[in-house]
Amino acid sequence: MQSLEAELEEARALEVDALADAIESIGFECTRCGACCTGEAEDDHTATVFPDEVRDLQETTEHDWRDVARPMPYGLADGEDGPEGETFEWALQTDSCGDCAFYEEDDNGVGACVAHDDRPLICRTYPFSVALAGTSQPMGEVVDSVALGAQREVDETGDEESVVQAHECEGLGRDISRSDAEDLAAALKERAVRELEEAIGVRDAYEPTAVDPGEIVVHDSEGAKRPDGTPIDD
Question: Where are the compositionally biased (Basic and acidic residues) regions (predicted)?
Answer without folding.
Answer: 217-228
